[in-house]
Amino acid sequence: MNLKPGIAWIxxxxxxxxxxxxxxxxxRGWQVAISGRRLQRLxxxxxxxSGIHAYPLDITDANAAAATVAAIAADFGRIDLLLYGAVAAxxxxxxxxxxxxxxxxxxxNVMGLVRLLDPVITQMSRQPTGGQIAVISSLAGYxxxxxGGAYAATKSALITLCQTMRVELEPKRIIVRLITPGFVKSExxxxxxxxxxxxxxxxxAAWRIVDGLVRSTRFEIAFPWxxxxxxxxxxxxxxxxxxxxxxxxxxxx
Length: 253
Ligand SMILES: NC(=O)c1ccc[n+]([C@@H]2O[C@H](COP(=O)([O-])OP(=O)(O)OC[C@H]3O[C@@H](n4cnc5c(N)ncnc54)[C@H](OP(=O)(O)O)[C@@H]3O)[C@@H](O)[C@H]2O)c1
Fold this sequence. Notes:
Elements: E1 7-11, H1 16-27, E2 31-35, H2 39-47, E3 52-54, H3 62-76, E4 81-84, H4 99-109, H5 111-126, E5 131-136, H6 149-169, E6 174-181, H7 187-190, H8 202-215, E7 220-223, H9 225-236, H10 239-252
Helix pairs in contact: 1-8, 3-5, 4-6
The structure holds NADP nicotinamide-adenine-dinucleotide phosphate.
GO cellular component, one term: cytosol
InterPro entries: NAD(P)-bd_dom_sf (IPR036291), Sc_DH/Rdtase_CS (IPR020904), SDR_fam (IPR002347)
Organism: Paradevosia shaoguanensis
C-alpha cells in the first residue's frame, strides 16, 4: 500500500512536529491545510511551500472547527488525511492536581479532537475513497509515571479513543492511526528542564510519521524503538515492580 498524495489537514501545523509534517507532505506532492491560533506562525510555514495553506483556528471553538472543516472541503473538494497534533502545554507539578489546569489540557488535547470528529467523519464518509484520521498521542500515554500529570492523562485518553475509533469507523472507510513519539525537538520540549533521552530532530520525527502514514495502514506509528520497547514492557510489569521502578524515576531528576 502506498497512499497517493491528496489533501491533508494538520491541527497544530504552525510549529514543531505539525509544521515539519506539513513540509514533508507538501514535498511529496500533497496539498496541506494547517491550523492553529497564531496566524503569523501559520503564514511562516505556508510561505515555505506553495502546497501549504493557512486556516487559523482555535480548536476550543466548536463552531469555528466545523466551519473550518466546511471551508477546507469547499476549497479542495475533500479531506483525505486529518492529523491532530494540537497540545496545550499546561504543566502540572507532581502532587498537584489543579482542576483548571487539567481542564485546560483536556479541552485542547482531547476535546479539540472530539470537536472535529463528527464534521470530519461526515465529510470523509461522503468521499468515495474515505479518509484517514491520525492522532498524535505520545509514549507518555502508555503508563502513568510520576510527573506525567495532565499531559500524560490526556495522551492515554487519546490512545483508548483511537483504539475505539479504529474498529468503529472502519465500515465507513475511515482508517484511524495512532502516532506515539518519544521526545522530539519542538516548542513543547524547549520548555522542559529535565534530561530527555533520545531527543529526536523534528524533521526526523516528521519523516517517520509521514512515511508510516503513506506506506501502510497499520494502527500505530511509534518511535524511537528503544523507548517504545521500554514503555511497552513497562505495561506488562506486575504493579509492585512497576511502582518500585516508577518511584526511582521520581527521585532521579
Ligand atoms: N515534542 C515531543 O517530544 C512530543 C512527544 C510526543 C508527542 N508529542 C505531541 O506532538 C504534537 C505536536 O507537539 P509539538 O511537540 O510539535 O509542540 P508544539 O510545537 O508546541 O505544537 C503544538 C501546536 O498546537 C497548537 N495549538 C495549541 N493550542 C491550540 C488551540 N487551542 N487550537 C489550535 N491549535 C492549538 C499550537 O499552535 P498555536 O499556539 O498557534 O495555537 C502548536 O502549533 C502534540 O500532540 C504533542 O503532544 C510531542
